Amino acid sequence: MGKRFDDASAQVGVAIVGAGPAGLVLGNLLLDRGVDCVVLERRERAAVVGRARAGFLAPGAVETLTRNGLGDGLLERGRTHRTCRFRGEHGEFTLDYSRAGRREAHTVYPQQDLVRDLLSAFVERGGDIRFAAPVREVTRGTVRLHDGGEVRARYVAGCDGHRGVTRAALTARGTRTARWDHGVTWLAVLAAAGPSMPAVGYALHERGFAGHMARTDTVTRYYLQVPRGTDPADWSDDRIWTELATRMRTAEHGPLRTGAVLERAAVDLRCDVLERPGADRLWLAGDAAGLISPSAAKGANLAVVQAATLAPALAAALAHGDSKGLDRYADDCLPRVWRAHEFSHWMSGLLHGPVGHTPEARYGRALQYARLESLRTSRAHQDHFAESYTGI
Ligand SMILES: Cc1cc2nc3c(=O)[nH]c(=O)nc-3n(C[C@H](O)[C@H](O)[C@H](O)COP(=O)(O)OP(=O)(O)OC[C@H]3O[C@@H](n4cnc5c(N)ncnc54)[C@H](O)[C@@H]3O)c2cc1C
C-alpha cells in the first residue's frame, strides 16, 4: 500500500482529483503498476455511488475494463444492446447495428454501478481515497483542499469533470480550448418505469427531439429537447409523460410504461476539447480534458479509455523518468476524441431539427428526414453509423 497522504512529510506519486469513471479507472491501473496514489473527491461516498448519468458502454471501454480486472460487474449484470429505433412522421424503423460495420454491440450498465465497482476494486487493492475533500487549487504538484489541508504529489491527475479546478489550472497556463455549443438543451429524466421498447429510441418531432434509453428492468432514462434556460421544476411528472407520449407518437406505436420521475435535470448540449490535455506535472482525463454532448453517449467511454492511456504513461515517468508516454498522451488521445466528437456532432444534427413552422424550420426538418432516410435505406451509411456508434 502507498504512503498515507495525511502524513505532511509524504509525497505521493499521483494525486487524483475526482472519483468519477476517469479518476477511479486511473487509480486502479496505477495501483496495479505499483504507483502510490490518493484520490480526492469533493462529494460524500453515497453521492458518488448514487449519481445516475451514463449507461452505454462501447466494446472498447468494456474490453479496457475487463482486461484490467474491472469488468466483473458489467459482465455479470450488464445488458447487451444491439439495436436502435428511430421514429418520425413517416413511421419507425429499427437498425440492428450489431449486423453492420464492425458488428459490435453496446453493454448497458448504469454509470453509478460502474463507479461502485471501480471504488470497491480500488479499496480492495489498498487504495487511499478521501471523500468530502474538495480541492481548491492545484499548483506544481501541490493540491490544496478547501479545509486547508495539502497534498504534495509528483504528478496530479485532473479527473474532476468539465467544471473542475484542474482544467482551470491548465488553461490558466495557456492551454487553448476548442468549443462548440449546439444551442440545444435536454431535459434528462430518470423514471421508475421499465423500458417501453427493446432498444434505444430516438423520436424526431416538430415539437423537438425525444429519446428513450433503457437502463434496467425498473428504470428508464428519457430525454426531451426543451428551450435553453428551462427550469426542470416547471416540468411535472404529468407534463413529462404527456410530452413524451406526443413526441414518441404513442397513438401510432403503443403506450409508454410510466412511473414516478426520480430525477429531472437540464443538460445543455455543449462540447469542448483542450488542445493539450496536460503538461509538466498536471495531466487531465475524462470530462476534465474535454466535454462531449451526450447525443452519442461517448463521454464515459472516452473517460475510461483516456484514463487507461494515462496510467502507464504516469507509471513509466515515475518508475524510471521515462516521459515518452506523457509526451505522446495528447497524440494518443486526441484523434479518438475528435472522431467521437465528429460523430456526436452528426448525431446531434440528425436528432435536433428546428422547432416551429417557419420556412427555415421546414427546410431544416426536411434535411433531418433526408439524413434519416439515407440511414434507413443505405447499407454503406448503416456500416458507417454502426462503426461510429460503437467505436471510440
Ligand atoms: C444525462 C447524461 C447522460 C449521459 N449518458 C452517457 C452515456 O450513455 N454514455 C456515456 O459514455 N456517457 C454519458 N454521459 C457522459 C458521462 O456521464 C461523463 O462523460 C462521465 O461521467 C465523465 O467521467 P469523469 O470521470 O471524467 O467525470 P465525472 O463523472 O464528472 O467525475 C468527476 C468527479 O470529480 C469530482 N470533483 C469535481 N470537482 C472537484 C474538486 N474540486 N475536488 C474534488 N473532487 C471534485 C466530482 O464530484 C465527480 O465525482 C452522460 C452525461 C449526462 C449528463
UniProtKB/TrEMBL annotation:
InterPro entries linked to this entry: FAD-bd, FAD/NAD-bd_sf, RIFMO-like
Keywords: FAD, Flavoprotein, Membrane, Oxidoreductase, Transmembrane, Transmembrane helix
Matching Gene3D superfamilies: D-Amino Acid Oxidase, subunit A, domain 2, FAD/NAD(P)-binding domain
EC number(s) from the headed UniProt entry: 1.14.13.2
FAD-binding domain boundaries: 12-344
Single GO molecular function: 4-hydroxybenzoate 3-monooxygenase activity
TM segment ranges: 12-31
Keyword Transmembrane helix applies: yes
NCBIfam families named among the record's database cross-references: PRK08243.1
PANTHER family: P-HYDROXYBENZOATE HYDROXYLASE, TRK SYSTEM POTASSIUM UPTAKE PROTEIN
Protein name listed in UniProt: 4-hydroxybenzoate 3-monooxygenase
Organism of this sequence: Streptomyces doudnae
